[in-house]
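INFO batch 0412 | record 1 of 1 | parsing
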Amino acid sequence: MMMPSTLGGRSPLFALSVSAGFVLIFIFALMAWPSRMTFGASHMYRSYRYAANSKANVPISEVIKLLYQNIKAAPSEPFIREPNGSHLELPPNPRYTKNMGSDVLILDLETRPLKSTEEYNNGEYEWRNLNHVSGGIFNHYTYALVHGYDYKFIHASEFEDRHATWIKPSALANHIKKYKFIVFLDADAAFRFLHVPIEWMLNYWSIQPHHSFVMAKDPWSAREPQFNSDRFNRTYTNTGFMIVQNNENTMPILKAWHECPDDTRYKNCSQWKRPRFHEQSAFGEYIRYDYEQYIKELDCGEANGYPGVDISNCQGKLIRHYWFEKKNVKVDFRENIMNAITLPIQRVFAENIGGIVQEQEENIIH
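INFO prediction complete | emitting tokens
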């Protein structure tokens, strides 16, 4: 993508060095803290908590915006470059050309407390020990900050009679009225590219105004067709990543889905209260057949799976879902953040900002 040619009234190199330095000083100052925060005295603990929360520090939202301001893709960017050099090209005549900002909600739902919160409160937070749940949440929250979307983490109560994943329909219904789109991800799912906005993906997948739900299919194999298939041998869609659009059909779908286990509309839907795949099976067995035209089903490789999954080519092209190898959620997040941090450092060397690169024509001692 194009880099801005000027930044304010001063030279671009000066502005770059100032902005990059500002960000890096802040980040490296945080990184300079002891790698494992174990505090023997209460005043030490308070000082670390103060450093993390001090209003004198630049808000993390501003740091993230500054890091990504020159590398974030536009909604109608013609193509996205992949690390291997190939490109994901946008179809012609994209519908979404502007960032929707706070009209989009990035939503996390959990009945589990975040282990990282407990560690932080105990003064023991350590990135290296972070589990995949917190790693996934951090990915989603950072993505919202990069693009100016709203973000909510809903800590929901457990059901008494059904699996915890049944919290999804009601939580989506309770928030969709305030937004144009809700983007939901399980904790083991992640945005592959933090710099690619959801508007770009809506364009890439040709999402239309009548689409209430966007989901990716699960992997399917002819060798074991009974897995990930409904009673009609049709492949399930995975509810670990959903784009929900606010239109006239969305609430009826969510209501039907939420009430499905009560067996009022769909006989025998209660069988999916606890057995796998819970709410996903109910959606695949019943809901989608009544609302077919309002549901966009993506190929598995578009927004499900991860590198190394050969079945159905579920490689996680834009959204990755680590059903296994969950630790790689953190790896994806780390690689995205490091790319944003090191790009301005590399530019310093490439453009020799400040004259830090000097040529030594003769290898002699003067």
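INFO post-check: The beta strands are 79-81, 87-89, 104-110, 150-155, 181-185, 189-191, 213-217, 237-245, 295-298, 319-321.
INFO record closed
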